């Protein structure tokens, strides 16, 4: 299934927005982890995009892999403090985040909760039983984000710019990965949705 977000289609409406964090909401730190609030920088016009999303989606959920905890680069307390301040800044700008879920596991941990595994989405659905993955969209900048959304039947949006994943992305596309839309930034995705008013 493929979605055209700009099409005039009254039957098209996504109730829940799933968002990756690094590279989508905030800038990545090349080769490192955002371990302190002072290192956290919103991507251009992300706050405006999130303010718009709060009028468009019933639920907005952040799902983020944070193996910096597993590597000892930061503590759970540090990460949660970053998220508290992130949510506060978003609220002050007129937006909202309904929940933030993170996975601290290392990528080589057996049965870990990292995307593309579905654990964080199922946690969200447990907290908000009205979430229907078929009426949800996943926005991320990594192959694992797109696989996460595709595995659950969500629409998928790739935020371009993660240059170190180009080869991995091309390989995944050859093997059935589906990307419904690509945008240069979270703001550009919001601008496209503005053409399709919510019901």
Automatic annotation (TrEMBL):
GO terms for biological process: carbohydrate metabolic process. It is found in: Cytoplasm. Coiled coil: none annotated. GO terms for molecular function: metal ion binding; phosphatase activity. Keywords: Carbohydrate metabolism, Cytoplasm, Hydrolase, Metal-binding. The keyword Ligase does not apply. One of its GO terms (cellular component) is cytoplasm. Pfam families: Hydrolase_like. Belongs to the GmhB family. This is D,D-heptose 1,7-bisphosphate phosphatase. It comes from Haliscomenobacter hydrossis (strain ATCC 27775 / DSM 1100 / LMG 10767 / O).
């Amino acid at each position: 299934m493929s979605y055209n977000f700009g099409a005039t289609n009254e039957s098209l409406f996504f109730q829940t927005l799933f968002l990756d964090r690094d590279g989508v909401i905030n800038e990545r730190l090349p080769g490192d982890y955002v371990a302190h609030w002072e290192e956290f920088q919103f991507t251009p016009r992300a706050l405006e995009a999130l303010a718009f999303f709060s009028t468009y989606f019933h639920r907005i959920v952040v799902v983020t892999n944070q193996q910096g905890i597993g590597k000892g680069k930061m503590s759970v307390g540090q990460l949660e403090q970053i998220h508290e301040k992130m949510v506060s800044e978003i609220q002050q700008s007129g937006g909202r985040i309904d929940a933030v879920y993170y996975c601290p596991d290392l990528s080589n941990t057996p049965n870990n909760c990292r995307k593309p595994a579905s654990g964080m989405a199922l946690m969200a659905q447990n907290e908000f039983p009205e979430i229907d993955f078929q009426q949800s969209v996943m926005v991320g900048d990594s192959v694992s984000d797109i696989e996460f959304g595709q595995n659950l039947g969500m629409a998928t949006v790739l935020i371009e710019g993660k240059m170190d994943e180009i080869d991995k992305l091309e390989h995944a596309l050859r093997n059935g990965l589906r990307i419904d839309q690509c945008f240069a930034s979270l703001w550009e995705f919001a601008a496209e949705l503005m053409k399709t008013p919510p019901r």
